[in-house]
Design a protein that fits this description.
By secondary structure, the chain is an alpha+beta fold. It has two domains: about 10-70, Orthogonal Bundle (DNA polymerase, domain 1), CATH 1.10.150; about 70-110. Helix content is about 35%, strand content about 25%. It contains four helices and four strands, in the order ααααββββ. It has helices at about 10-20, 25-35, 50-60, 65-70; strands spanning about 70-80, 85-90, 95-105, 105-110. A four-stranded antiparallel sheet has the order 1-2-3-4, with no helix packed on it. The chain starts with 9 loop residues before the first helix and ends with a strand. The mean pLDDT is about 85.
Length: about 110
């Protein structure tokens, strides 16, 4: 599986763009959209050519979402007291369970994988 984009630095993203037939400045654009604008999927990065986004969506790691490396929300349940349980899926098929427990003035978060 290819390395997800999230976690790559500027130089790595520039090299990644060149490796995919794009100019290095596309890597700088990706860097901005990943870290400053918080893009969740490649489809959100509107400065990338549509054809390039479609090309990436068709090749491994299957789908534009997985290129980003962000977790997907697989399930959410919220109790009456506001406690929220989340099941997240990672880009490499693993699951992470999280629970957010609100209390006055704070939020306790538990994470397990």
């Amino acid at each position: 599986m290819s390395q997800p984009l999230l976690g790559m630095g500027l130089a790595e993203l520039e090299a990644w763009a060149r490796d995919h037939g794009q100019a290095a400045f596309r890597g700088r654009q990706l860097h901005d959209w990943l870290y400053a604008k918080g893009a969740r999927q490649l489809g959100d990065v509107s400065v990338l050519p549509k054809g390039f986004r479609e090309q990436l969506a068709a090749e491994p790691p299957q789908g534009a979402f997985d290129w980003m490396g962000r977790s997907r929300e697989l399930h959410r349940s919220v109790a009456r007291d506001g406690t929220t349980k989340l099941l997240l899926g990672t880009h490499d098929g693993l699951s992470i369970e999280t629970v957010g427990i609100p209390a006055e003035g704070r939020l306790t978060v538990c994470v397990s994988s």
